[in-house]
């Protein structure tokens, strides 16, 4: 059968979709990531792997399902399967509201998909993740090292959707990493709900540092490792020193702080030692001024006064993150924070105003951070080549895929291709983007 596969949401969901794709291919199906309605290109089945993390994502995913439903009504697809986090969270409601969907399956229930498509062969064969990236980017791949979460932040629905921590054994991660590198990956991005708790559900002392050591030992010399989603409470000076000592680990960390005020962090169930968050980021800046830092910040959580918000602004000004995602708090159904009545929740208008104010401040800081690299040479992983303009676009150590800046460079591009590394001298910048020439 020809399967039209749509993947929504985060990088972790993309990994799940590639496992689903590999499973489908192993059972003889053809997987496509695009359909051309104008060319009347048909598919036997459309599968959407959904995200249900926050209400904005829920709405976006429902709209995407309705679009696929329209394809089914127009005869471009015969069957429709809805899978993933949205089903985990709202299966009964979806069944009532979307009767035209032929099958609902929860995250990683790929055996049910195969049984539906191949009723005569109702046993799931063992298969590896598809080496074919759904977005056709073979050189940057995500490596999911765990699923679920035990931290239980009061605002977060992830434990409700994905359950408790389940770490992937090191041997499986190493095997998958080597397969991806053999297929062309130059950069592996380690993802999980929180990398710092990796291995805590094992009893043999497995931890994140041990995993990184094994990856350092087993991967090609020029491989990049990038770390996402590190809880600040479990990032300390020793861990930072370790990261800086690893030649394959990029000098880039994604550490979502959410806030800096101790009372708000306690209400979020993210309490930490007084001054800890400030101390670890100051330490990074002292060790390496050019180290790239990304964070996530939430405004408008219960109890956020003007004074506490101003303290958050001051913290951003001091630490000077390279990139920061800012968003207004939205209570999620089923979470503890959604039931919180005291202190009072900040109004939506004020929350959005503060999020925009933080975003404006971060835009200026991102530009000023970019200026540090003027006249520097940086190693660039090429993502795209424009032969007409003679330019390449790609990412340096400081740019995570899809969420951070990009670097554009001109020069002799005749022998270059996407996935190559090249050195670039930085001559200009605009916000988080850099511009230069090939060395």
Keywords summarizing the entry:
439 residues; alpha/beta; 12 helices; 23% strand
Structure description:
This protein is of the alpha/beta class. The chain is 34% helix and 23% strand. It contains 12 helices and 18 strands. A 6-stranded parallel beta sheet has the order 6-9-10-11-12-13. The protein has a 5-stranded parallel beta sheet with strand order 2-1-3-4-5, with helices on both faces. Helix 11 packs parallel to helix 12 (348-371). The mean pLDDT is 90.
List the helices and strands and how they pair.
Layout: E1 2-7, H1 11-26, E2 30-32, E3 43-50, H2 55-73, E4 77-84, H3 85-97, E5 103-105, H4 110-117, E6 140-144, E7 146-147, H5 158-162, E8 166-167, H6 170-182, E9 187-191, H7 208-218, E10 224-227, H8 237-245, E11 249-254, H9 262-267, H10 276-287, E12 292-299, H11 306-319, E13 323-328, H12 348-371, E14 377-386, E15 391-395, E16 407-410, E17 421-430, E18 433-438
Parallel strand pairs: 1-2, 1-3, 3-4, 4-5, 6-9, 9-10, 10-11, 11-12, 12-13, 16-18
Antiparallel strand pairs: 7-8, 14-15, 14-17, 15-16, 17-18
Helix pairs in contact: 6-7, 11-12
> What structural class do helix, strand and pairing data support?
alpha/beta
Query: Strands of the largest sheet, in order across it?
Result: 6-9-10-11-12-13
The geometry reads as globular
- N to C succession of SSEs: EHEEHEHEHEEHEHEHEHEHHEHEHEEEEE
Query: Distance N terminus to C terminus?
Result: 48 Å
> Which residues sit in consecutive blocks of at least 5 with pLDDT less than 50?
none
* Mean pLDDT value: 90
Give me the number of helical elements: 12
Major sheet characteristics: 6 strands, parallel
Percent of sequence in beta strands? 15-25%
- The percent of residues in helical segments reads 25-40%
- Strand tally is 18
Radius of gyration: 23 Å
């Amino acid at each position: 059968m020809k399967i039209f596969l749509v993947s929504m949401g985060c990088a972790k969901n993309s990994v799940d979709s590639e496992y689903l794709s590999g499973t489908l291919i192993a059972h003889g199906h053809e997987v496509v990531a695009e359909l051309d309605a104008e060319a009347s290109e048909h598919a036997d089945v459309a599968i959407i792997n959904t995200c249900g993390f926050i209400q904005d994502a829920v709405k976006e995913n429902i709209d995407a399902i309705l679009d696929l439903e329209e394809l089914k009504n127009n005869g471009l697809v015969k069957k429709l399967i809805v899978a993933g986090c949205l089903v985990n969270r709202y299966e009964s409601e979806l069944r009532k509201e979307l009767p035209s969907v032929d099958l609902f399956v929860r995250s990683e229930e790929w055996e049910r998909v195969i049984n539906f498509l191949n009723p005569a062969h109702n046993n799931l064969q063992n298969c590896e993740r598809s080496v074919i990236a759904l977005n056709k980017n073979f050189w940057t791949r995500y490596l999911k090292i765990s699923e679920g979460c035990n931290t239980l932040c009061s605002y977060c629905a992830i434990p409700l959707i994905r359950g408790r921590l389940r770490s992937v054994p090191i041997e499986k991660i190493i095997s998958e990493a080597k397969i991806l590198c053999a297929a062309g990956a130059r950069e592996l991005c380690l993802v999980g709900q929180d990398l710092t708790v990796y291995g805590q559900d094992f009893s043999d002392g497995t931890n994140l540092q041990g995993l990184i050591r094994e990856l350092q030992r087993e991967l090609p010399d020029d491989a990049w490792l990038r770390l996402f989603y590190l809880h600040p409470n479990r990032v300390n000076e020793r861990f930072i020193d370790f990261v800086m000592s690893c030649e394959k680990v990029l000098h880039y960390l994604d550490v979502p702080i959410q806030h800096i005020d101790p009372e708000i962090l306690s209400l979020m169930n993210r309490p930490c030692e007084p001054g800890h968050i400030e101390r670890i980021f100051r330490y990074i800046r002292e060790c390496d001024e050019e180290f790239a830092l990304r964070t996530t910040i939430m405004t408008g959580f219960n109890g956020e006064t003007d004074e506490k918000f101003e303290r958050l602004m001051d913290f951003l000004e001091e630490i000077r993150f390279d990139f920061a995602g800012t968003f207004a708090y939205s209570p999620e159904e089923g979470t503890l924070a959604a039931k919180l009545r005291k202190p009072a929740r900040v109004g939506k208008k004020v929350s959005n105003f503060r999020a925009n104010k933080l975003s404006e401040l971060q835009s200026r800081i991102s530009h000023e951070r970019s200026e540090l690299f003027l006249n520097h040479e940086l190693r660039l992983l090429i993502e795209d080549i424009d032969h007409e303009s003679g330019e390449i676009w790609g990412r340096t150590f400081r740019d995570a895929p899809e969420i951070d800046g990009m670097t554009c460079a001109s020069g002799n591009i005749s022998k270059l291709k996407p996935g190559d590394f090249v050195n670039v001298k930085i001559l200009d910048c605009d916000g988080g983007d850099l511009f230069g020439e090939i060395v």
